[in-house]
Task: structure prediction
Amino acid sequence: MNITIQDLQSYLSHRYSGWATEQSMFMKLVEEIGEVAEVLNKRAGRKFSSEEDLQTQLGTELADMLHYIVAIAAINDIDLTQVILEKDKLASVKYHHDVNLETFLTKTTD
Result:
């Protein structure tokens, strides 16, 4: 199954509507960033790792980070899809990229 950022935002807006705050979601995001750091430290050998599936753990923790990033946008009525496209256009000009995200997506769907 494929989901879009818009799908996830809509779901999280419904899930957290009326009770979640940007501060609570940010604190959860910070926790998840720490968990990603722990997995990366284990993968790099800077922290002990038993027989863990670090690839799966990394994916899970990254998904958790994405969840809370999108939740913060959702409870603040920020259209992440639009913001990402606009931000990428500006970065593409600033850093002289040949293709921006919108152009890339247009070419891959043709």
About this structure: The helical segments are 5-16, 22-43, 54-75, 80-94, 101-109. The domain at 1-78 is CATH 1.10.287.1080 (Helix Hairpins). The CA atoms of residues 83 and 89 lie 10 Å apart. The longest helix spans residues 22-43.
